[in-house]
Amino acid sequence: MAFTGFGEYAVDFFDGLAVDNSKAYWQDNLAVYTSDVRGPMEELLAELLDEFGDFGQGKVFRPYRDVRFARDKSPYKTHCGAVVERGRGGGAFYVEVGPAGLRVGGGCFRLAQDQLARFRRAVESDVHGAALAAILDALRAEGWEVAGDRLVTRPRGVPADHPRLDLLRYRSLTALWTWPPDDALHERACLDRVRTAWRGLRPLNAWAADHVGPSDLARR
To answer: Which residues pair with 98 in a beta bridge?
Structure first.
């Protein structure tokens, strides 16, 4: 089916889940999650894959949190996300719906050790590092939030006067855009928002695919 927007109660569902993150709440409101959140997200991703499927496989994430090593044992995620990627860390087109509204993002969401080493080698390069800096400057100028996990100090072996020291501190690097809840979230216009935003992320994801790529290490 064609995507026509997230359901009327999509945000309300997650607002309630944030207050009562319990199996009882989940089971009582599962029909709302299925009809207003999960179903529309699957339809949205299916339409986006027509244009972005060349970048990798698409999937809607499971709603359950991995709590094995977490202090917070809440069982359910308070958002629903979907992604198109070849492998975690090597570039991604991401979309999420939750209490904050609609969020899209791209870049290197999580870098394994081999990916981090390739990222830093590329950033240190005058050619590839300067290209990434230009991509990020352009995204910031358009209003994107550039974020990620960063070292407080500089990486070992990097001189204090390196021209891209700020970039070399990143251990993950993403560009994010958020629309607060509004009428467009529940309309087909939501598809246009995501598609336009993902097009703007192509240069960043192409850089990540070319210079970082999927990890060769086994996932834990």
So the answer is: 101
CB contact set of 217 (below 8 Å; sequence gap of 6+) = 112, 113, 114
Report which DSSP code applies to 100.
T
Q: pTM for the whole thing?
A: 0.94
At residue 68, φ and ψ (nearest 5 deg) are: -60, -40
Q: CB neighbours (10 Å) of residue 104?
A: 22
pLDDT given at position 218:
66
The dihedral sign for the CA sequence 90, 119, 67, 79: negative
CA distance 63 to 143: 30
Residue 33 has pLDDT above 70, yes or no: yes
Residue 185 falls inside a structural domain: yes
Give the CATH number of the domain where residue 56 resides.
3.30.930
Residue 186 in any domain: the answer is: yes
Supply the mean pLDDT for the chain.
95
In a domain, 4, yes or no: no
Please give the share of the chain, as a percent, with pLDDT higher than 70.
Answer: 99
The domain containing residue 196 runs over which residues?
10-211
Q: Which of 193, 178, 153 is nearest to 96 (CA)?
A: 178
pLDDT in tens, 41-67: 999 999 999 999 999 999 999 999 988
The identity of residue 74, as a single letter, is S
